[in-house]
Amino acid sequence: MEAPDTGRIRQLDALVVGAGFGGIYMLHKLRNELGLDAEAIDKARGVGGTWYWNKYPGALSDSEGFVYQYSFDRELYEQTPWTTKFVRQPEILAYLNGVVDRYGLREHIRLETAMTEAEFDEATGTWTVGTDRGTFRCRFLITGLGLLSATNVPDFPGMETFEGRLVHTGAWPEDLDLTGKRVGVIGNGSTGNQVITATAPIAAHLTSFQRTPQYSVPAGNRELTPEEIQSYRDNFEANWEQVRNSSVAMGFEESTVETFSVSAEERERIFQKAWDTGGGFRFMFETFCDIATNPAANEEAARFIRRKISEIVKDPETRRKLMPEGLYARRPLCDSGFYETFNRPNVSLVNVKENPIKEITPKGVVTADGVLHKLDVLICATGFDAVDGNYMRVDIRGRGGEKLKDHWSGGPTSYLGMATSGFPNLFMILGPNGPFTNLPPSIEAQVDWIGDTVRHVSDTDAGWLDVAPAAEAAWTDTCAEIANQTLFAQAASWIFGANIPGKKRTVMFYLGGLKNYRQLLATEAAKGYPSFVREGGQ
User: How far apart (Å, rounded) are the C-alpha atoms in residues 523 and 276?
Assistant: First the structure.
């Protein structure tokens, strides 16, 4: 669709920013279910959000495909053609494009249009949203900016001098072919894990620059049998009911068995079965119920994984570098042969804690030991400024001209992960302190709630709703209290903003599970939004 005329203001009921999983469903909800005049914008050249940008080799969902999709339309679900346990990026992107066309949304999405500023006017109860291709005015502003979309690019001396290709996995160029190239990869989290494993077989040589060794278990990705696919479709209602009433919403029953309530032999059997079956979340949450909360139980799981690494990696020095220590308490990773990759003769590993990157030169990476690692391509798999990163890069002003970046100067806050005090009728999909789960079910819960709230405001005399400061503070305290009951809070990871130099470490997720979260949403709506103030302070 054409961008708006830069000489006029486009009037809307609602503007959706972002066209990924969240933005697409939100636009469908607003237009096709609520009948509102709504449009979406996205800075990308295509829809898909995360799955548009992350085209790197090996990009794969870490939620199983039968629950990594929408559930709001059973007919859509039954027509989804995915045939593997986990789903590859091109298939997910094709799926999201199909959803856009199925519900007639494409003509209402303005691509290559980035939000640059937004300001709320109390007198009119509207948002004026500036973009790089025109201005919008709307009653409701809904942001689906993505948890993991503000790329984090390291700043090494000499990066601008590199004569090869320098890329970030979150902005992957379509013309990049790694076949026969000397490739360097900085980072070994979920993305680095995937891109290293997929690239090593085709590269002339691959050098992994690793800061922190990770715990990872096999993904166990495979073709599903026709019987399995049919079973998912036949059991649609039961499967999704289980997902919505679970904690991590990954499509399996979370364990209620404590690690040390069974014998050592039984623990070994359960861990081995999970290793053979595959899946990071299954290994952490389907085996035992206390791996994420009990340090001793956590160490049992970690010890099992470390033993597997010892069995897989042949070279003693490489094995030492790959061996994680301490807590198994980051987002649980799974892989398609990550540790086996380091047995290849064309793969080398640099521990940058022991041997830091000193500088980037025209020919490659120089480490502290003086070695030049010659490269044709340098890949930054260095993650994202997660959760609030994209919000900090836009000038958003609420009541009284308060800037969102000032409101969040002590760390990002919200109520229910969707609204923040002083910014009326601004609703965030996957905003700070939303649920830490498989994302599509959480997105659907949030979009449904936002849709009901928009309907409530539209059908009453309330010009706008704004979260009471006390409610936002209480929700922040609740999220911190729950997080501190887990071991995740003790690990330095992006879940708490620890991957960004200088960023304040803070809680960014509600770790109480999807079932409890959905109950909180239902209660807030049923009681008439008691945590919000209305126009005029009523």
Answer: 41
CA–CA–CA angle 396, 400, 403 (5° rounding) = 30
3-state secondary structure (DSSP) of residue 525 = helix
Out of 399-403, 435-439, 499-503, least confident range: 499-503
Q: What is the dihedral of CA 145, 111, 55, 82, to 10 degrees?
A: 90
> Which two tokens mark 102?
């199925």
Pairing state between β 372-374 and 377-380: unpaired
pLDDT confidence band for 507 (50 / 70 / 90) = confident
Question: Residue 40 and residue 16: Cα distance in Å, rounded?
Answer: 4
pTM of the model: 0.94
Tokens describing residue 414: 């919200």
Task: Name the more confident of 298 and 150.
Answer: 298
Q: Look at residues 297, 292, 286 and name the one whose alpha carbon lies nearest to residue 254.
A: 286
Report which secondary-structure segment, H or E, holds 143. Answer: strand 134-143
In sequence order, the β-bridge partners of residue 17 are 41, 143
Residue 502 pLDDT > 60: no
Q: Can you read off the two tokens belonging to residue 56?
A: 């790197």
3 vs 281, higher pLDDT: 281
Cα separation values, 340 from 60, 94, 215, 323, 480, Å: 18, 31, 14, 13, 38
Of the candidates 450, 387, 382, 381, the one whose C-alpha atom is nearest the C-alpha of residue 146 is: 387
**pLDDT at residue 315 above 60?**
yes
The CA distance from 389 to 141, in Å, is 18
Helices (H), 235-364: 236-244, 264-277, 280-285, 295-312, 316-322, 338-341
Count of other CB atoms within 10 angstroms of residue 463:
17
What residue spans of 141-235 are helical by DSSP H? 190-199, 226-234
Q: Would you state the pLDDT for residue 331?
A: 87
What span, in angstroms and rounded, lies between the C-alpha atoms of 449 and 455?
10
